[in-house]
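Handout, section B. The chain below has 326 residues.
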Amino acid sequence: MKDEKAIGGFFEYELISHISRGQDALLFNSGRSALAYLLRSYEIDFIQIPYYTCDVVLEPLRSLGIEYDFYSLTQELLPDIGSGEIDIDRPILINNYYGILDESLKTLPLKKAVIDNSQAMYSELNGGYGSFNSYRKFMGVPDGGEAKLGGPVKAILDYSEYPRYRCARNLDYLFGRLESGPEEYYDDFKGADKILEFSEIKRVSEVTLRSLDSVDQDRIVHQRIENFRLLEEGLERINQVPLASISNRQVPMAYPLLIEKGSSLRQKLIQERIFVPKFWPNQEILPKKGSYEEHLTENLLPLPIDQRYSELEMSRILKTIEALGY
């Protein structure tokens, strides 16, 4: 299958047209840094977080001495308010999984919520304690994430005092993928990812700032929505996640396909050069044995639907899954 075009995986360097950023957004070097800024701004000393989330969120909690507890999800990927695990009167981190939950999350009490829009870069959904996102999950840039404030802050932090992130030494994987497949530069990608993960809070790099001014926002939005709908039409019959139809204002990160033995299908797709990540690998936040979160971790496949691909690649994904007996 070496001759087949690779679908999915990390982004190559991307320069196209233009993107506009909201004037209320503060630009940092990562979603983690943006989260840390919000936690400090609202002087949060305790927060509830989902079992099904990235371990990276723990780092700012620990470095700031913030206590935390976990909560479970419903089958719709929403906080299980009725479980008794959640105190709606205390701060809570709520994930906008896969960028498809805007309308559903609006029905929840968000007064003391921080909204994790890492998988929903274009979402305008905000909580009382703000929201944050991550650029690198949506386009080929070396760093970047936004923090948006919600209600009045408790601590006034001077954004301009944070140093700017420098990324020139970590660009090989972005340019490398322009010239060859993702396999050759995967280790470089992971190395750059690790450096960014443990970076202190910094403002977004100059490289990313200039890149953002050249990315075609309309194309990203249109292509992701179109690709998502193509996969939804073909996979709705086997998908265990009950998905509501997305609007033209919701821009998904991936198509979440949940099936029994999804981990086996993931490996088969990778052999066909359709790269499907696991959310999240090497977890420190371990879901409860036999829980829905454990099922999500092992068997949910975030299928690539990003702007690099069109109906041709979506058709290949669907045909491959069908040929594998699903």
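Note. The two ends are 20 Å apart (CA to CA). Compare this with the example in section A.
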